[in-house]
Design goal:
heterodimer; A: 290 residues; mainly alpha; MetI-like fold; two-stranded antiparallel ribbon; 13 helices; 2 strands; B: 375 residues; alpha+beta; Rossmann fold; OB fold (Dihydrolipoamide Acetyltransferase, E2P); six-stranded mixed beta sheet; 9 helices; 20 strands
């Protein structure tokens, strides 16, 4: 048929169109625009002024940028191992023949579907040094709890605890899926081979979960570089700059100080960091495979 | 060396009314090759897994060399097992798969190395030692699974349908290899299969199970020639045995579907307690039904007129399906021309090799002893 190619094209355009329009307006144009803005000085009121790599030069010399990057890395170092270990631990528990395990799976997943703002408000209250439940429980065992969110030494720890609590369910679900993909006969073969439960965990479970672990690390790493909601609600980056993470810094530059160009430059720096870390991780993963 | 004793073994899973295995009694001699065979769900795998320690034993005693093993952990039972899906560790190389058990048992490094290499050479796996299971063919994986069992010199080998994932040709050659391996290693072996050919060719003794109960224990020749009941007769033998519901009338076996055969004197002599007009299930194997042109002057009353329905030519044999009245017959004949579907032929029945079962109890009316003469 002569017209069939054109006909097909129309249909393809018809089905792809809505998605493409959305993608263009809400993803592609902002990305390209933000790249352009990062080369300008712009306060939202006046027209942007092109300054070339000026923002990036400022960024490299800006101690605040490095401070917020350091805070972000500190957050990740505390958050990632904890959420993975606890998530895997609970997945292992809920994968066994526990009573009411379906119920518990649901319970542990609840925080994942709860809004970050709500969670942050509740935890702010829990961490309240005077009325909060956490210090109340600590006082029961004779410990005087710290001023969690207002003490620079403990504020980030409080953010980490909140984040771990909220994300355990997500990690748990991923690990549960991974665990259920492991054939029970492997464990049977191992127990005939002479393995005890610890051997089985280290020699069978963990290696068999490697693809899941890779996925978990990748997703969590990307997400935790972008940690923001809980910080913004619970501490606003304070006290001082104790919890001022990268995205909080970007947010402040853009919407408190109206330095849109500089904020865009920091966003691109964050993108490059996440991109590099992901590439590095994928490369490492490939090297350890078959 | 290991003798195994299973005494009144029973298995019932929680929340289940029926016993999966019941009243299982078996003494396995050292170096014996036992095959548990039966249809799926008959309890054969459960029995094997109880021997392995992968399932708890609900009741009864399980002994290896006189020692009670009911509550001993699998790793302390001196057993090795080959799983149906092989259960190879996917993240380990063939070498590591083979050495895993030895390492856990803290064998010396050189010892592990020499055992692994020896097993690999026996099984032709030497050049695959560095490969991961995913890169091996089905047959090679099967060998690795066997290798994992033999490196340890376990006293008892347990095999759970080890050949069922292979294609027909490979299955045949691996069957022969398992037989050779057993001759070489002489380990006491318990082998589970639903394939009667594997059972017949490998076993010293076959244990035929159905619905959790042992139906018969005996050598392959025994269970073929003297099936204890209708189930065994029907399960062992391919093509399957012919069954006819008949009753005895004036020295004849008859049914309302048009079946009529004279009971020969010899056949009668094996059935001393036969009542007049007793209802029987007659079992007669396909090779004991011949087309009468090929036999010399059949005795009167030992033949039935039939119409051929299907002719299957197998090279060395011809399987003839036929219908006479409402009765269906399957006969295995030597290669040759016997006619085409629709043709009428006369079938001759060798009733001296037939089996007579009580219609209600389904048990063979002739004890194995009494029928020894005709094997």
């Amino acid at each position: 048929m002569v017209g069939s190619k054109k006909f097909n094209f129309l249909w393809i355009a018809f089905f792809l169109g809505p998605g493409l329009v959305g993608f263009t307006i809400f993803v592609l144009i902002p990305i390209v625009t933000s790249l352009y803005i990062s080369f300008t000085e712009w306060d939202l009121l006046n027209s942007p002024v092109f300054i070339g790599l000026g923002n990036y030069q400022t960024l490299i010399a800006d101690p605040d940028f490095w401070m917020s990057l350091k805070n972000t890395v500190f957050f990740i170092l505390g958050y990632l191992p904890s959420v993975m270990a606890i998530g895997l631990g609970i997945a292992l528990l809920l994968n066994s023949k526990l009573k009411a395990r379906t119920f518990f799976r649901g319970v542990y997943f609840l925080p994942v579907v709860t809004s970050w703002v709500a969670v942050s408000l509740v935890w702010s209250w829990l961490f309240n040094p005077v009325y909060g439940l956490i210090n109340y429980f600590l006082s029961l065992v004779g410990v005087t709890g710290p001023n969690w969110l207002t003490d620079p030494k403990t504020a980030m720890i409080a953010i980490i605890i909140t984040s771990v609590w909220k994300d355990i369910g997500f990690i748990m679900v991923l690990y549960l899926g991974g665990l259920q993909n492991i054939s029970p006969s492997l464990y049977e073969a191992a127990s005939i081979d002479g393995a005890n439960e610890l051997n089985k965990f280290w020699k069978i479970t963990l290696p068999m979960l490697q693809p899941t672990t890779f996925f978990v690390v990748m997703i969590s790493l990307i997400n935790s570089f972008q940690v923001f909601d809980q910080v913004n609600v619970m501490t606003g980056g304070g006290p001082g700059n104790a919890t001022n993470v990268l995205v909080q810094n970007i947010y402040q530059s853009a919407f408190n100080f109206f330095e849109m160009g500089y904020a865009a430059a920091m966003s691109w720096a964050l993108f490059i960091i996440i991109f590099s870390v992901s590439i590095l991780q994928m490369w490492g993963e490939r090297r350890t495979k078959i | 060396m290991a003798k195994i004793s299973l005494q009144n073994i029973a298995k019932r899973y929680p929340n289940q009314e029926r016993f999966t295995v019941e009243d299982f009694n078996l003494e396995i001699a050292d170096q014996e090759f036992i095959v548990l065979v039966g249809p799926s769900g008959c309890g054969k795998s459960t029995t094997l897994r109880m021997i392995a320690g992968l399932e708890t034993i609900t009741a009864g005693s399980f002994l290896i060399d006189g020692k009670l093993m009911n509550d001993v952990a699998p790793k302390d039972r001196q057993i090795a097992m080959v799983f149906q899906n092989y259960a190879l560790y996917p993240h380990m190389s063939v070498y590591k798969n083979l050495s895993f058990g030895l390492k856990l048992r803290k064998y010396a490094k050189d010892d592990i190395d020499s055992r692994v290499k020896q097993a690999a050479s026996i099984l032709g796996l030497t050049e695959y030692l560095d490969r991961k299971p995913a890169t091996l063919s089905g047959g090679q994986r099967q060998r690795v699974a066997m290798g994992r069992a033999i490196v340890r010199d376990a006293e008892v080998f347990l095999m759970d349908e080890p050949l069922s994932n292979l294609d027909a040709k490979l299955r045949e050659s691996m069957r022969a290899e398992i037989a050779k391996l057993h001759q070489r290693l002489k380990s006491t072996t318990v082998y589970v299969t639903h394939d009667q050919t594997e059972a017949m060719t490998l076993a010293d003794r076959i244990v035929i199970m159905d619905q959790g109960k042992i139906q018969q224990i005996g050598s392959p020749v025994d269970v073929y020639n003297h099936p204890a009941n209708v189930f065994v007769a029907g399960f062992i033998g391919s093509p399957a045995i012919n069954f006819f519901d008949v009753r005895v009338e004036n020295g004849y076996l008859v049914n309302d579907a048009g079946f009529k055969l004279k009971l020969s004197a010899l056949a009668l002599s094996k059935l001393p307690n036969l009542q007049p007009s007793q209802e029987l299930t007659l079992g007669i194997r396909p090779e004991d039904i011949k087309v009468s042109e090929n036999t010399e002057s059949p005795e009167a009353g030992s033949t039935i007129e039939v119409e051929i329905t299907v002719v299957e030519t197998l090279g060395a044999n011809v399987i003839l399906h036929a219908k006479g009245g409402e009765n269906e017959f399957v006969s295995r004949l030597n290669a040759g021309q016997y006619g085409r579907p629709g043709d009428k032929v006369t079938l001759w029945f060798n009733l001296e090799r037939a089996h007579f079962f009580d219609k209600t109890t389904q048990q063979n009316l002739v004890s194995a002893k009494a029928s020894n003469g005709d094997s």
